[in-house]
Design a protein that fits this description.
Elements (H helix, E strand, L loop, with lengths): L2 H8 L26 E9 L13 E9 L7 E6 H7 L13 E5 L10 E6 L3 E5 L2 E15 L2 E14 L1 E10 L45 E3 L6 E3 L10
Antiparallel strand pairs: 1-2, 1-9, 2-3, 3-4, 5-7, 6-7, 7-8, 8-9, 10-11
C-alpha cells in the first residue's frame, strides 16, 4: 500500500461498527482485529511534565487503519485530527519525509492471554506547516480484542512535541461520538455563558445505534471535550 493510499484510508473516519448488546460468546476473536475509521482518544498528562503548548492536549479524534503489506506483519496506521488538518493546508510541509500518520507492526496474529494485541513501537508522525512544527510519537499501543470489544478500545503512551515535549497516557475508543445536549429540534443547548452543555445520556445505550457506542462500554461524557470517553482504562465495561 502506498503512503497516499494509507492517508486516504486513515482519513475515512465515518466507518462504524454495529455492535450487539449482551453478546455472550465463549471465545475471543481468532485474529487481532482493529476497529477501522473514526476513534476518539482522551489524553491524560503524566506527572512532572514541562509547562507549555505541549502539555495542553486533552484529547482528539483519531483515524485508525489496519492493512497488510505483502510479506510483512499486519500494520496499523494512526493519524490524529491535528496532523490530518495540517496535512491539508497549502502550502504544506516542505519536508518530503514528514508524514501525518504513525505506522507500527502488530506483534502477533491473535490476542494474547490477556486479550490484548500490541504494537510496541510506531514511526513518528510530524508536520511542519505555517510555523507550527508538531509531532506525535506513539508507543506501547494495546488494543483490547474480545467478543464485546472487537479491537475498539485501546490504551497507549504518547510523546507530544509542540515547542516542548510532554508525555501522556492515551485512552481511546471507537466510535468518535459527540455528547452535547440538543433540544427537540436538534439544536445544541447552551448555558448562560453560551457554552454547549454535556449530556451523559447521549453516551448511553438509549442512543444506540445512533451514536454507535457499544452498549457494553462503560462511558461518560467528558464535560470539556463533549465527547464520549471510557470511564476507566481498557477494558472499560458495564458490570453485568
Amino acid at each position: 500500500m502506498t503512503y497516499s493510499a494509507i492517508i486516504r484510508c486513515v482519513a475515512r473516519t465515518g466507518v462504524a461498527l454495529l455492535l450487539v448488546a449482551g453478546c455472550s460468546l465463549s471465545q475471543s476473536p481468532a485474529t487481532c482485529v482493529v476497529g477501522q475509521g473514526g476513534w476518539f482518544a482522551k489524553y491524560t498528562l503524566m506527572a512532572n511534565q514541562p509547562v507549555g503548548a505541549c502539555s495542553q492536549k486533552q484529547g482528539e479524534g483519531l483515524g485508525v487503519r489496519k492493512y497488510f503489506p505483502p510479506g510483512q506483519n499486519p500494520q496499523v496506521a494512526i493519524q490524529t485530527d491535528t496532523l490530518g488538518n495540517m496535512a491539508l493546508q497549502t502550502p504544506g510541509d516542505p519536508n518530503p519525509i514528514d508524514r501525518p500518520y504513525s505506522i507500527g507492526a502488530l506483534t502477533q496474529d491473535a490476542p494474547d492471554a490477556n486479550q490484548i494485541c500490541s504494537i510496541p513501537t510506531l514511526s513518528t508522525a510530524e508536520q511542519n506547516v505555517g510555523g507550527s512544527d508538531i509531532s506525535y510519537a506513539w508507543s506501547n499501543v494495546r488494543f483490547v480484542v474480545q467478543p464485546n470489544v472487537p479491537g475498539t478500545q485501546m490504551i497507549a503512551s504518547l510523546r507530544y512535541t509542540e515547542g516542548c515535549t510532554a508525555e501522556y497516557k492515551a485512552v481511546g475508543m471507537q466510535p468518535n461520538a459527540d455528547c452535547f445536549a440538543v433540544d427537540a429540534q436538534g439544536t445544541p443547548v447552551l448555558d448562560q455563558s453560551g457554552n454547549q452543555v454535556p449530556d451523559d445520556m447521549r453516551c448511553g445505550p438509549g442512543y444506540f445505534p445512533q451514536t454507535q457506542v457499544n452498549p457494553d462500554f462503560a462511558v461518560r461524557c467528558d464535560p470539556v471535550l463533549l465527547k464520549c470517553v471510557l470511564t476507566a482504562d481498557p477494558p472499560s465495561l458495564v458490570a453485568r
